[in-house]
Amino acid sequence: MAATAASLAALPADAQQRYGRRDTILVSPEGYVLDYIPDDARVMRDSRGRTVYVDAWGDVIAIAEPADRRYARSERYNPRRDRYRPVTGYPDGDAGYFPPAPDDGYGYGDELTTGSVPELREALPGGIERQPLPDYSTGDDMAALPADGGTAADSEFVPGPTFDAAIAIGKKTSAEITALQVFLDREGFSPGVIDGKKGSNVVKAIEAWQKATGETLDPNDTDDILERLRLSGGMAFTTYEITAADAAGPYVAAIPDDYAEKAALPHLSYTSTVEMLAEKFHMDEAYLREINPGVDFTIPGTIVKVVDIGAAKTGKVAKILADKGRKQVLAYDEAGNLIAAYPASIGSADTPSPSGLVTVERVALNPGYTYNPKINFKQGNNDKVLTLQPGPNGPVGTVWIALSKPTYGIHGTPEPSKIGKTQSHGCIRLTNWDATELAKMTSPGVTVEFVD
């Protein structure tokens, strides 16, 4: 079977269609129609049931796709087709259309290169239907960021809740810090990326956990932390076997900086198996490599060391506080109990988030993204509207919680290690897994209050 498929795939794209395969083309992970595939390619099925071709190392070479997804019958393949749309109906600076893409106001520059939550590759989380996002120019299902976050004069100071200070974390090993991070993550009080390092996100998570439980958590009492871990599901570390589906992807070789090149890709997926696994287990990618020295993550059957994050937090959120001073999102139930907290990047001095009350309008998973140079900053030589397809390397991650104030939302990020340490463009930016957990507990009508 593999030999037949490989010999068929070795023909040019036009030849593939003439040779009895009018409904199928072979597409590389980078989004290009292939003219050939190496003779040693093997045929597999990925987790989505698609036919994929992998090389001897387990790397995906090509994916079989229906031809009508790329071009109409009798139409020749044109990689630049449908990449641009003209800007009509909105003068420069009109706030009725958004979004700006991330720029230096986020602290990211053009370096958006990391991934997303595992739900992208699996079924959507239960309890949330994918809903169309509002796009104020075309009606497309595209997520967005605010075109104009306002000025400092627009913001009114609203004090946030107070927290008892956490006990200072002393000299601890990386494994001991990891155990603390895993415990907090399981409790729904996120420390951000799990990286075995103490920092502000860990301290904020401890303080929020103490506020919610009324207990005091001593981060230096390792025996207590290990006992709490045991009661919450087991020790911090576990093992994971890389599956054929993990190795198959789909992945892209790299995410380009230029937005026009991004727009040409069929999806903005993970760039590697290790990137996908790091987000699957809420870990820093460098830390995952560090605790697995010399491991090749691309080979199915490989056993790797990961953290055991346990089950996601559940509950029904009735109110969300976006605390700009703490750089933290706090989630409360109907009785006013604090049930979860997440580190966040919220607004900036140039484009602050609003103060006061808004509400959740809709929740969407795996959203696309629209870039409009007439409203946004100028990126490269791009002077037309660009439509970026969904994927974990999209500018807003894989979750968009739209708010009643136009152009504002709570969303994920392709750069989780920077959450809580940089600023955003007026929106509320969380790690993708935290945004997903919050989205599963949130519904339209939930109150969101920005406090200082």
From TrEMBL:
CDD domains: YkuD_like
This protein's pathway: Cell wall biogenesis; peptidoglycan biosynthesis
SUPFAM superfamilies in UniProt: L,D-transpeptidase catalytic domain-like (SSF141523), PGBD-like (SSF47090)
Active site per database record: H411 (proton donor/acceptor), C427 (nucleophile)
Region (Disordered): 81-110
Keyword Cell wall biogenesis/degradation in annotation: yes
Residues in L,D-TPase catalytic domain copies: 318-451
Top-level taxon of the source organism: Bacteria
Classification via Pfam families: PG_binding_1, YkuD
Keywords: Cell shape, Cell wall biogenesis/degradation, Peptidoglycan synthesis, Transferase
Family: Belongs to the YkuD family.
PANTHER family per the UniProt record, alphabetical: BLR4375 PROTEIN (PTHR30582:SF30), L,D-TRANSPEPTIDASE (PTHR30582)
Full protein name: L,D-transpeptidase
